[in-house]
Amino acid sequence: MLRHALVLFSAGQDSATCLAWALQRFERVETIGFFYGQRHAVELDQRPVLRSQIGALCGPDRLGEDHVVDISGYGAIAESALTADRAIEMAATGLPTTFVPGRNLVFFTVAAALAYRRGVDVLVGGMCETDFSGYPDCRQDTIDAMARTLSLGLDRPITIETPLMKLTKAQTWSLARDLGGHALVDAIVEHSHTCYRGDREHLHVWGYGCGVCPACELRAKGWEAWRRSATA
Hints:
Layout lengths: L3 E5 L4 H11 L4 E8 L6 H17 L4 E8 L1 H6 L25 H16 L3 E3 L15 H15 L4 E3 L7 H23 L11 E2 L2 E2 L5 H18 L1
Parallel strand pairs: 1-2, 1-4, 2-3, 4-5
Antiparallel strand pairs: 6-7
Helix pairs in contact: 1-2, 1-6, 2-6, 6-7
């Protein structure tokens, strides 16, 4: 076991897997979530449920405090299809309209400030540049630069761990099974939330969601690929 970690935990599939990963590697793990005016704010309702399930499965004695921060003012400034009633499509910039400018940069800055006060030196995020929507703040280069900037700005070493950075969604499902068995996979299916539209009415084999937004499509394809590989 090494040091303490703070996991950026939204209650999505990726952050849920990262929390399980951190609980097996660190002496103490805290979590942080953000309300930034997201249309799928139902994810915040899922956080305590899913967090409790993962803690019980992967390390109840190592799961520390949870923190939720209201940064809705930032969300209003960085308006996107995730924070306003806009169509989810490709913009003229070449990025999807779901891109929230600087979101991960803001998340890490706020998380680092909390980590500084809590004596935590490792931040954990579910960013991935394999199966992602083209978001520039999910790239390894961005994360590396952010870690260096935070370390300089706080005058204290800050490490950012991104265990999913090189994984496909299928591999993320596989990692969850390796970390907590089928019980963890079932918890992620039942209690996590990824759907951009905030749909908690329609349950699919891979979890709740509208089934047509980019987040649902990516999650569904990953599930199907994982199940095919598991039965091959």
